[in-house]
Amino acid sequence: MPFSSGAVQVWISGRVQGVGYRAATRQQALALGLTGWVQNLPDGRVTAVFAGEAVAVQKMVDWCHQGSALAQVTQVMVEPYSHSLSPGFTIS
């Protein structure tokens, strides 16, 4: 589903912690020219915010369904994001 908004927050479920998911997410986001952040959650999911051109944001959301080489993604939830972001892309 395409997003007209330039920013979204995603929650990724599955085997996504301890498999290089956050580092791979940052690398992919920077390659697409996006800003935002990615972090592990205590419940085993990963959450991230991606902001930039709508086409690049959609490509990033699509990428999240696959993730890093060792990840096993079972679900990606997406919502619009309207808070301000610092420049760059950080891992928490």
TrEMBL record:
The UniProt catalytic activity note for this protein reads: an acyl phosphate + H2O = a carboxylate + phosphate + H(+)
The record ties this protein, via InterPro entries, to: Acylphosphatase, Acylphosphatase-like_dom, Acylphosphatase-like_dom_sf, Acylphosphatase_CS
EC number of this enzyme: 3.6.1.7
Q: Does the keyword Protease apply?
A: no
- Keywords per UniProt: Hydrolase
Looking at the keywords, is Lipid biosynthesis present? no
Where is the organism placed in the taxonomic lineage, from the top? Bacteria, Bacillati, Cyanobacteriota, Cyanophyceae, Gloeomargaritales
Q: Which family does it belong to?
A: Belongs to the acylphosphatase family.
Spell out the catalytic residues: 22, 40
Show the Pfam families listed in the entry.
Acylphosphatase
- The main enzyme category here is hydrolase
What name is this protein filed under? acylphosphatase
Q: Which organism does this sequence originate in?
A: Gloeomargarita lithophora Alchichica-D10
Task: Indicate the segments forming the Acylphosphatase-like domain, all copies.
Answer: 7-92
Q: Name one GO molecular function term.
A: acylphosphatase activity
